[in-house]
Every structure is written in C-alpha cells, then in structure tokens.
Specification:
By secondary structure, the chain is mainly α. It has one domain: Orthogonal Bundle (Arc Repressor Mutant, subunit A), CATH 1.10.10.10. 68% of the residues lie in helices and 7% in strands. Strands 1-3-2 form a three-stranded antiparallel sheet. Helix 3 packs across helix 4. The longest helix is centred in the N-terminal third of the chain and has 31 residues. It is globular. GO terms for molecular function: DNA binding; DNA-binding transcription factor activity.
C-alpha cells in the first residue's frame, strides 16, 4: 500500500495502460507493414485495400458498387482506382454472365501470385508463433478479442463516414 495521500495504481488501471500500449504498438506495426507492402506492390492504400477485398471474396470477384461501399468511394473514384489497378495488371473487369449491365471485378493471377508470395509466409509464421506460445483456451480468447475489436472498428468507421470533413483553414 502506498503512502497516505499518494495515489496507487489499481490492477485494472495497470492492465488498461498495458493494453493501450500493446494496441498502439500493434496498430503502428501493422501500419508500417502495410506501408511496405504498398511500396513493394507499387500501389496506394486504397488500391491495396481494394485488392485485399477482391482477393478475400469467396469467388475472388466483386462489383464496383460493392467496392465503393466497402471503401467509402464514389462511383467515379472506384472507376479511377480500377483503371489504375487494371493498368498494373492486378485486376480484370468483365461483364456479368447473366446481367450484361453489371461489371464484375476479379483479381488477376499476377495479383494473387504476388500477394501469395509476400503475405502467406507472414501468415504462416504468425500462426506458428501463436500456436507455440498459447494454448487452445488462450487462442480462443485472443480470437474473441480480435473479433470484438474488429467489430468495434467497423462501428467507429461507420460513425466517421457520417461526419462531414473539417473545412480547410
């Protein structure tokens, strides 16, 4: 116990500080990693995120409208982005097989190969490390935490999308 009149740090407060530091470190590390991935792929952040979305789709395809919604872009912004990605050989567009008015956006083999070459080894290494350090019960807690944290980030993103940008000074 501390001296009378001196504040003491409670265990929940200490853990809260550690968690905050750990999350800041993690977010910073992820941002640094993404910056390097962007550099190597020769794209910008929005283009990288679009590639990620397309590559993670079950059919490895999506529509410009879905990309616009996920990325918070206008139709014109998505078109410009897709033009860049197509020029680099990372995506291909084609007409929908049953609705010729719709366009389908697919990742190319080049995009899939480059992301596979760069990202898969990191994912495999991460899983190996986690499996070596944590038991099943701890991994379930980690997975639950990451899921809840991801859901919270989506809520925050949606709130920010509803805020008008600050005016320029």
């Amino acid at each position: 116990m501390g001296k009378p009149g001196c504040p003491t740090t409670s265990e929940p407060a200490r853990i809260s500080v550690e968690l905050k530091r750990a999350l800041e470190f993690y977010h910073g590390s992820v941002e640094d990693l993404i910056r390097e991935l962007i550099r190597v792929l020769g794209v910008n952040e929005t283009d990288r995120r679009a590639l990620e979305i397309v590559l993670l789709e079950e059919e490895k395809a999506t529509t410009p409208g879905r990309l616009a919604q996920r990325l918070g872009l206008t139709a014109a912004g998505v078109t410009i982005m897709l033009n860049r990605l197509e020029k680099q050989g990372y995506i291909a567009r084609s007409l929908h097989p049953t609705d010729r008015r719709r366009v389908i956006v697919m990742a190319t083999e080049l995009a899939a190969d480059r992301v596979q070459e760069l990202v898969v080894p990191m994912i495999v290494e991460s899983y190996k490390m986690l499996l070596n350090y944590y038991d099943t019960a701890e991994l379930e807690i980690i997975a639950d935490f990451l899921t809840r944290a991801g859901e919270l980030q989506r809520i925050h993103r949606q709130r920010l999308r509803e805020v008008d940008p600050y005016s320029r000074p």
